[in-house]
Design brief:
mainly beta; single chain; two-stranded parallel ribbon; 2 helices; Leucine-rich repeat, LRR (right-handed beta-alpha superhelix); 10-stranded parallel sheet
């Protein structure tokens, strides 16, 4: 659907008026817009859209018209609904969805095979496995603060993933399949309900940092002693 009415400040008008197609950046951050202005869909060569810390409540179907979009940031806004048409943004490489009260993440987001970074902490996500296994290009994934209850095993199939952060997500078990993540450099699983770590963590040959503080370990996770000395660990042996 099209929006014929929208509220935006003179600052937003000015940003759109002086939009530079050579840079392709439109920054609406901290403005008081309640919907994305219809005029942005007519901007030539828009590649980077920042609408974080705004009052917008949804990402509409028209987002698919921004064919060249590479960056989208709607963190800390009032967005609760994201149109499935977001999956049509084939050039998107960076997506910020932090601190949102989402009703549901559209499964079509899994079509974003070229996405490199997904930051979606504290956004009411419960079942990322429905869409995340298809996002084969991911290198950065941040899902902290979501009540996942289980570690999404589908993540283990993301062979390009290098940085995985799932802190304070109510996790109880880390699957053995995590050892298959051959390019993982950072693993952060702090503040969960883990009682042990799987031995397969020792197979993460490219691991550089692992953060596991504030879990419910029965004792010191001895698999951490099997890691190379250069790997940074945030808990001391006891």
């Amino acid at each position: 659907m099209r929006y014929n009415k929208y509220n935006y400040s003179s600052d937003v008008e000015r940003e759109i008026k002086y939009y530079n197609p050579e840079e392709g950046v439109l920054n609406l951050s901290y403005s008081r817009i309640t919907v994305l202005p219809e005029s942005i869909y007519r901007l030539p060569r828009l590649m980077h859209l920042y609408a974080n810390h705004t009052l917008i409540e949804e990402i509409p179907d028209e987002i698919a018209e921004l064919k060249g979009l590479k960056t989208l940031n709607i963190s800390d806004s009032r967005v609760r609904y994201i149109s499935p048409s977001i999956g049509e943004l084939s050039k998107l490489v960076m997506l910020w969805l932090e601190n949102l009260d989402l009703k549901k993440m559209p499964k079509e987001i899994g079509k974003l095979k070229g996405l490199i970074c997904l930051f979606a902490k504290n956004s009411n996500i419960t079942s990322p496995g429905e869409w995340i296994e298809k996002m084969s290009g991911l290198e950065w994934l941040h899902l902290s603060g979501n009540r996942l209850n289980r570690f999404p095993e589908e993540v283990c199939g993301l062979r390009n993933l290098q940085f995985l952060v799932i802190d304070y997500a109510n996790l109880r078990i880390i699957p053995n399949k995590i050892g298959e993540m051959e390019n993982l450099k950072l693993l952060s699983i702090r503040g969960n309900k883990l009682k042990y770590l799987p031995d397969s963590i020792a197979k993460l040959s490219k691991l550089e940092k692992i953060y596991v503080l504030d879990n419910n370990f029965d004792g010191y996770p001895w698999v951490l002693k099997e890691l190379p000395k250069h790997v940074t660990v945030d808990i001391a042996e006891w």
